[in-house]
Each structure stands twice: as structure tokens, then as C-alpha cells.
Design a protein that fits this description.
With 240 residues, the chain is an alpha+beta fold. It is built from five helices and ten strands. The strands form two sheets. Strands 1, 2, 3, 4, 5, 8, 9 and 10 form an eight-stranded mixed sheet that branches. A two-stranded antiparallel ribbon has the order 6-7.
């Protein structure tokens, strides 16, 4: 069998890079974060992660995978996992999930095409004679009928969407036996709503979106856009 070799020319390399860039998807996340301004909790850095959802078992592989993404994200803010919960400065309650399908509406823009009439028409062409005078010469040309875009139309269409979320809430774990209600240190809530229900794909993206806001106060809901090939996403996916 003859082997066919493709020469990867600079033009092909440029075209491939353009295609990859063009196909890159951007994801939008909404982030709400609050923190405790008390300086006594500012220096808390060690933690243990627990599930705050009774339906999510901490021994499940899914929870372990989500926890790993969170641990990597938290390491980017200087936090580290304690060897045991009794040694942890904080306990971080984690919950995540995907909603039931919801019906939303979006505006879809599509081109409108029409056929031109075509036919014969007369055009005037300026001609300069040898004396420098300009005169116009009429000629008849035939323009064939053709299909061309004549405008655009907007249409509101229903779409099925799913809301994915990741919530992390840290609480002071020091002297826990003497505190009936542990002090909240910080809390962050990340969500995305689109046509995908693939929670596993979105968890590392949500963890990456959370990094800049861990231990911060957003005051208002923030919107952040992320691509899968962004450095911050690569950092989360690579793990500790």
C-alpha cells in the first residue's frame, strides 16, 4: 500500500490554528461571593472538604473528582488541605448539581435570500478622445439572475436549558466544640445556564471561575467568561 504524506506548510499551519481558534467555545458564569471581614478569620488557610448535600456521598468517585478540582483551585489562593478534620482551620461545605430542564427563549437571526431579476441594461462608459475631451459610450450588457442575501430576519425560538452550579462555604473549625453556630469565613456560588447538562464537563470550569473570588466579596453578581483552553482552566484540570 502506498503511503501518502501530507506536507504541513506554513499556510496549512496557519489555517489549522485559525480553525481551532474559531471553534473555541466561550462559557459564561455568574459568581456571587461574600467574606467575613473579621481579621481573626482572615489568616485561616488549612481546610477539610465535606459534602453539604445529604444525597452526595463523600466516598463517591464523583465527589472525589469534584473535590480534587476544588483543592487545586484553592491552592491558587494559598489554601491547603489539612491532614485531618480536627487539624483544619476551616471546614468547607461543598454542593453541586444540575437543574431539571427549563424552557427559555432566544432570538435567532437568519439571512433572507431573494432572486434578482437579471436581464439587459444599458451602461455608460466615459471615454477620453485624442483631443482630451470626455464623451460617454453606451453599451448593453446582460446580467444573469442570481440568488443573493437581501436582509436578515429575527425569530424567537424556544430552547431547553440546564442550570449547573457549584457552591462552597467555609466555616471556622477552631474551638468547634464550644461554638453552637460556627462562624462563616467565606462563601462562593458559581452557576452557568445553557443548553448542556454535562455537569462533569462544567465542574472544572466553575472551579476555575471561582478562583479570583475565593475569600472576596463581590457585592454584586459578577459575570465571567472562560474558554476551555484558558490557563486557569488548565491549572485546575492538571490537579495538585
Amino acid at each position: 500500500m502506498r503511503e501518502h504524506k501530507i506536507e504541513f506548510t506554513p499556510f496549512i499551519a496557519l489555517l489549522a490554528a485559525f480553525v481551532l481558534t474559531s471553534c473555541s467555545s466561550t462559557y459564561s458564569f455568574k459568581v456571587d461571593a461574600i467574606n467575613n471581614p473579621d481579621p481573626n478569620v482572615k489568616e485561616l488557610k488549612s481546610y477539610k472538604i465535606v459534602s453539604s448535600n445529604a444525597q452526595i456521598n463523600e466516598d463517591d468517585l464523583e465527589f472525589q473528582e469534584v473535590s480534587q478540582y476544588i483543592k487545586t483551585a484553592l491552592s491558587g489562593k494559598g489554601y491547603y488541605e489539612a491532614p485531618a478534620i480536627d487539624n483544619a482551620d476551616m471546614v468547607i461545605d461543598v454542593s453541586y448539581g444540575v437543574s431539571e430542564p427549563q424552557t427559555d427563549f432566544k432570538t435567532k437571526t437568519s439571512p433572507v435570500y431573494g432572486r434578482s431579476s437579471g436581464g439587459y441594461k444599458t451602461i455608460s462608459t466615459p471615454v477620453i478622445d485624442r483631443n482630451g475631451n470626455v464623451r460617454y459610450v453606451n453599451s448593453t450588457v446582460f446580467t444573469p439572475a442570481r440568488v443573493e442575501m437581501i436582509g436578515v430576519q429575527e425569530q424567537i425560538v424556544p430552547i431547553i436549558t440546564y442550570e449547573k452550579y457549584l457552591r462552597m462555604t467555609s466555616r471556622d473549625n477552631r474551638d468547634i466544640e464550644n461554638n453552637e453556630s460556627p462562624t462563616q469565613v467565606w462563601s462562593i456560588y458559581v452557576k452557568n445556564k445553557d443548553e448542556s447538562e454535562d455537569l462533569r464537563k462544567y465542574v472544572p470550569l466553575m472551579a476555575a471561575a471561582a478562583i479570583p473570588y475565593v475569600g472576596e466579596n463581590t457585592e454584586n453578581q459578577q459575570e465571567i467568561k472562560i474558554k476551555e483552553e484558558d490557563d486557569i482552566v488548565d491549572f485546575v484540570k492538571k490537579g495538585l
